[in-house]
Amino acid sequence: MTHFNTQLLDYVSCSPTPFHAVANAVPWLLDAGYQRLNESDDWVLSPGGKYFVTRRDSSLIAFKHGAKPMLETGIRILGAHTDSPCLKVKSQPDVARQSYHQVGVEVYGGVLLAPWFDRDLSIAGQVSVLNQDKAVEQHLIDLKRPVATIPSLAIHLDRNANNDRSINAQEQMLPILWQAGGKGETFRTWLLSHLASQGVVVSEVLDFDLSFYDAQAGASLGVANEFLACARLDNLLSCFVTLQSLLASAEDVTNLVVLNDHEEVGSRSTAGAAGNFLTGVLDRLLPDTQERHRVETQSMMMSVDNAHGVHPNFVNKHDGNHGPKLNDGPVLKFDANQSYASQSVMASRVRVLARNAEVPLQDYVTRADMRCGSTIGPITATLTGIETLDIGVPTFAMHSIRELAGAKDPEMLFRLLTAFLNDY
């Protein structure tokens, strides 16, 4: 385990929700001299200044206002997303069956459901409460210990479980939170008790945005520790690396990192890439419309999101010429139907950049008889007109409750992204 990977796994393990992913990034920026901005205030931005702003507490933009004129340099942008597929608690979640108190959940994003069974689950997210002064306020919570589980059905009661299994998310994915025993406690009263135990005294829980997550922390594994296993590597690995690249970049060119929420469900929200968060910041950074359009034509973006490594047990799920391997370097992602934003001109420049930085590159194109996923890349490119490339580290088990990456790839990606911000 290198120091870089230790920091990476600590960040991901301590960020079970997008709210935590943003909150845990803020101290890095403050320590590096970044000034916090508020979207409702007037902004006075100066060359040489460093700034960041959040939206909905789950999306973040940080940027360095470079000393060189943006008309000469353009803006170098890195983008990633803070959300991951998971099980979210429903607004009226209480379900009492057979003396067990269960919690109704919604499936958020493209969750691989089977691995969620028999895991030690915890709960985290944001809670809106009415305080003692009858004012609404928000609190982050993270129980950090196992409090729930979704037990599998014994194979004796489902002899076909290993042959032809389907999972009904409404009926079969409800976590057991406690054994009721006639107590009559509800999820909201339990939340009140938890907040009180943390020294937060409130009169009422109004609403919440809470998720279940695997309480097992990230770890290195493999005989030579060549792998990293953790929840939410898609896409908090990219969030960590993009922020570290920004912090390590030079001061002369304007560089920006955007971390959007809601990518896993289509990005259609105020905090998502299809909203106006990034375009609003660019408007304030470049208030003259003509100047902004001129700068955008010289700007470049890397959309950083994990790629599918070729699985040794499922080799036929990949095109034979496009099977990225873990620990063989970052992956350029292409799709003729524009689910990825990469184009040949920018890709060729990045290949030269990677060669100069001594970072190996791999390519990913899905099989012609399959469809790939997508990223914030095409959406951001459409809204801004900025040339965009999709790139990421190869992983296994994407959208599972625990994913796997190569131990060498994050630092190689960091070197490439830092070179992009400094030298592109």
What can you see in these coordinates?
The protein has 424 residues and is an alpha/beta fold. 27% of the residues lie in helices and 28% in strands. It contains eleven helices and 20 strands. The protein has helices spanning 3-13, 18-31, 70-73, 169-172, 187-197, 233-248, 277-285, 289-297, 344-356, 376-384, 409-423; strands at residues 35-36, 50-55, 59-64, 75-81, 86-97, 100-108, 121-131, 136-142, 176-179, 202-214, 219-221, 227-230, 254-260, 300-304, 307-308, 331-333, 362-364, 387-392, 394-396, 403-406. The strands form three sheets. A nine-stranded mixed sheet has the order 1-2-3-13-4-14-18-16-17, sandwiched between helices. A six-stranded antiparallel sheet has the order 8-7-10-5-6-9. Strand 11 and strand 12 (227-230) form a beta hairpin. Helix 1 (3-13) crosses helix 6 and helix 6 crosses helix 11 (409-423). The model has no long low-confidence stretch (mean pLDDT 95).
